[in-house]
TrEMBL record:
Pfam families: G3P_acyltransf. Catalyzes the transfer of an acyl group from acyl-phosphate (acyl-PO(4)) to glycerol-3-phosphate (G3P) to form lysophosphatidic acid (LPA). This enzyme utilizes acyl-phosphate as fatty acyl donor, but not acyl-CoA or acyl-ACP. It comes from Candidatus Proximibacter danicus. GO terms for molecular function: acyl-phosphate glycerol-3-phosphate acyltransferase activity. This is Glycerol-3-phosphate acyltransferase. The lineage of its organism: Bacteria, Pseudomonadati, Pseudomonadota, Betaproteobacteria, Candidatus Proximibacter. GO terms for cellular component: plasma membrane. Its main location: membrane. The keyword Lipid biosynthesis applies. Belongs to the PlsY family. One of its GO terms (biological process) is phospholipid biosynthetic process. Its EC number is 2.3.1.275. The keyword Transmembrane helix applies. Probably interacts with PlsX. It catalyses: an acyl phosphate + sn-glycerol 3-phosphate = a 1-acyl-sn-glycero-3-phosphate + phosphate.
């Protein structure tokens, strides 16, 4: 392939990879209802967990995280520039948020963002995952964990990389995560947000 086409092709490929809806695929494999039809209606691991099938939820989590990790890992493996790596990271992440295979109505991106961060730097990924995990363990609110982790990620990235393009990439991902969780924030404030493990309800 012409080297001038490599990065654009990688960005398109990353977007398509991000668009793969593991929540829907895993639910079908386990004979479950479409995750868009109950709970929050979000095609993600937390909502799949509301079906009561932990295996399907875990596979969804791993799939969504792996696609974010793989896109960035391949970009690094082929020694692309930091700008190209950042654009590919954004492409796979926004592919999950706005997947072409689900008419651009995707998940909230927490697992995919985690995969991206782990590939960019495992220390950054572990630090952000730690913020999410501690928050969820103490509050049992996955959305609160996502909001706190999203707020903390750019600060950790700035400490590690300064004002680099990759730090800006993390900042964009964080703002998108917070935006996708805006309704969750409203429900948290009113005390109506469902906790992790709560039973599914019709959408």
């Amino acid at each position: 392939m012409d080297s001038s086409l490599l990065v654009p092709a990688a960005i398109v490929g990353a977007y398509l990879l991000g668009s793969v809806p593991f929540a829907v695929i895993c639910s079908r494999l386990f004979g479950l209802a479409d995750p868009r039809s109950y709970g929050s209606g979000n095609p993600g691991a937390t909502n799949v967990l509301r079906s009561g099938n932990k295996a399907a939820a875990v596979l969804t989590l791993l799939g969504d995280g792996a696609k974010g990790w793989l896109a960035v890992f391949l970009a690094q493996h082929y020694m692309l520039s930091n700008v190209a790596i950042g654009l590919i990271a954004l492409a796979v992440f926004f592919g999950h948020l706005f997947p072409i295979f689900l008419k651009f109505k995707g998940g909230k991106g927490v697992a995919t963002a985690a995969g991206v961060l782990l590939a960019l730097d495992w220390l950054l990924g572990v630090g952000v995952l730690g913020l999410w995990l501690l928050t969820v363990l103490f509050s049992r609110y996955s959305s609160l964990g996502a909001l706190i982790a999203a707020a903390g990620a750019p600060m950790l990235a700035a400490m590690m990389w300064g004002g680099s393009f990759l730090m800006l990439t993390v900042g964009v991902i964080s703002m998108a995560l917070i935006s996708k969780h805006w309704q969750n924030l409203q429900r948290l404030l009113t005390g109506t947000e469902p906790k992790v493990g709560s039973k599914k309800k019709p959408k």
